[in-house]
Amino acid sequence: MKILKDLNFRLGLISALFTLAILVVLPKTDVKIDNYLLRFESQIGGYAFSLFNDSLKLDLTDFKKGLDIEGGIRIVMQANMTGIEESQRQNALDSAKEIISRRINFLGVSEPNIATSKINNDYRIVVEIPGITNVSDAVNLIGKTAQLKFKKLDPALPWSEDKFLEYFQTPSSWLDTGIIGSDLKGVDVVVDNSGNIKNQGKPQIQLKFSNQGREKFSQLAKENVGRPIALFLDDSVTPLSTPVISQDLANGLTNDPVISGNFDMDTAKNLSIQLRAGALPIPVTLLQQETLGATLGSDSINRSFFAGMVGLLIVFIFLVYRYRTLGILAGVSLIFYTILNLAIFKIIPVVLTLPGIAGFILSIGMATDANILIFERYKEELFWGKKKQEALELGFDRAWNSIKDSNMSSLITCFILFQLGTGPVKGFAFTLAIGILVSLFSSIFVVRTLIGAFKRS
Amino acid sequence: MNILKFKKWYLIFSLVVLVPGIISLFIFGLNLSIDFVGGSLIKYSVPENIKIENIVAVYEKNSVTVETTSRGEGNLIFIRTKPLDVNLNNSINKELQTINKNISQVSFETVGPVVGKETTKNAFVSLGWASVGILLYIAYAFSNIPKPYSSYKFGASAIVAMLHDALLILGVFSILGHFMRIEVDALFITAVLTVIGFSVHDTIVVFDRIRENLNKLPKSWQFEKIANYSIVETLNRSLATSLTVIFTLTSLYILGGSSIKNFVLALLIGIVSGTYSSIFTATPILVLWESRKSRA
User: Fold this and answer.
1) Pick from B204, B212, B263: which is nearest to A406 by CB?
2) Which of A232, A279, A428, B93 could form a disulfide with A184 if both were Cys (CB 3.0 to 4.6 A apart)?
3) Under a CB-based contact definition with an 8 Å cutoff, are residues A131 and A109 in contact?
4) Fold that domain B3-33+115-295 belongs to in CATH
5) What is the pLDDT of residue A279?
6) Structure ipTM
7) How far apart are CA A415 and CA A430, in angstroms?
8) Residue numbers of B between 71 and 110 with CB closer than 8 Å to A
9) What is the CATH number of domain A65-146+285-292?
10) Where do the domains of chain A lie?
């Protein structure tokens, strides 16, 4: 790209990005100019956009902060265990916890704390959610009892494979059958051994009906041979699964019916957990709800923030002491880096928690490292008698290999941690990855441009 | 400067430092916090003038470690501790009453762990896979080194140095946990991950220079001499980078809030170890490994 070689274009691009990033990061701020030349009053920052009829929303009013930093709400729910065997109670509680965490993820909240608790014979679920604005909505959603419903396709509608997507997306094409989660007495994941080559060895979900449920289901199967039924969880719009009733099934329910599909073991397990929770509807009631302060304590956060700033200042002084002018330019690019990163956190949005901030700080370290690598290389080349201009070019060129390989390996680590990790590990990996990508941009592109501009002036 | 002259001693030194920690890990394990093992969640309603510190002081007097605290609306104070038995709870309440009659316990309950076994297990599993990923990447990125040197040895040496650093923090915190009652909380997982990231990053920079010099320096030079030369060349950078990170962390440790002190301490130990291991663990292992082959 030839245009990227043009210094003016590069400077323009960096300034534009920087301005944009500042506007994103700024909270709502009043701007007031009042003198005899100009009178001007406005607000900048803290924007909120909504595009295409709310299908694309961008809320930049504030950073999303986690429980440790901002606090949130704490909800305690009591599970009603009547009618559930003593030995099954902990299981039921765990699956309820699972369902609740799924619902909270559905709310778009990340990194909630969910724990089960048992006091004497009371089984409870304690949920702590950060940054929720609409508390009653959250409480409603979380406190609802999971209900599994079997629905059939409206008999007035014709069925063929190619209509599948249309029906799948239209809740009104499905009618209640009266079969619900409590008609099941259990759900298992089994491996297909039916001899059907296509599905051999694939996981399936086995539904174990109660006697009453079995009767109802047989009836339903007879009436719907070759047509799909749908399993809805709670009041979700799209069904969990839409198996088609086979002829065998309609002839008589000898074994427990299975749902087969293109599941891998994990999705099959998850689905069975969800169904089981529906099958064991332990009603939960809201026991208490209260607002929580930050678990880290606001005093601790302020002090840590201050300490972080002092640390950065020392780094800045160190860079200037060691690399003079180059150090100043690297320092400026570090400021640029920090603001650009914060802007990205706000746009995505990333929930800021301490592990996330740790990832961010590590990425600052790696950003500085890229500059140190380049500058040390520059000094070496000077030592070997190269001219300043040439030494600088060589510094960038030769340091690039180390920078590329070390950052690539960190990105690989991030990717794997993000894929396999849970909770705080995910947050850490995500912020670190963003930080590394931005740092490559700032410590090479930005620093190089700044050096160019500095030399010209 | 011939740094690698004492290469075997560095490895022995590493072992001497690591072994007590590993033994402690086997005997004492880690002192896990409420995040991992669950505990008691106690709620007080207090008069306006009572601070969280007042309540915590009473707990500490009864040698109960308070894990986290927070203040809710309407003068509620939440305290989390390791599982507390009812008698101790009652006696603490009595003592609180002597401070102020209006401190009342709203609730006392036992909660399960916030960090489930799943999270910890996943962290270890992903660490295993990350090692494989790094190994393969280094093997690929270094595949153009001249024969008879093997890029897999570079990768494996980097992984050994990384495990060295991870084991060191685990060991140190096991010892600290047993003798100083310092606990390992959910943030500790993050600290270990951070250190691992830094460690590999740091090692690759040194290895990268060895790669460059293998092609540049005279063919007659022994591998050890080339490695030593590369370490000396990158020494300034290694120190400068570590210093910047150590500056930030030291400032966080001295000035930062108490709730992140252990976290920062783990990072500090790990970063120092990470810098050390790139030069004094990863490279000696690589040299011993590669030299053995060339002699054969």
Assistant:
1) B204
2) A279
3) yes
4) Multidrug efflux transporter AcrB transmembrane fold (1.20.1640)
5) 44
6) 0.79
7) 8
8) 71-73, 76, 78, 109-110
9) 3.30.70.3220
10) 3-25+299-456, 65-146+285-292, 148-269
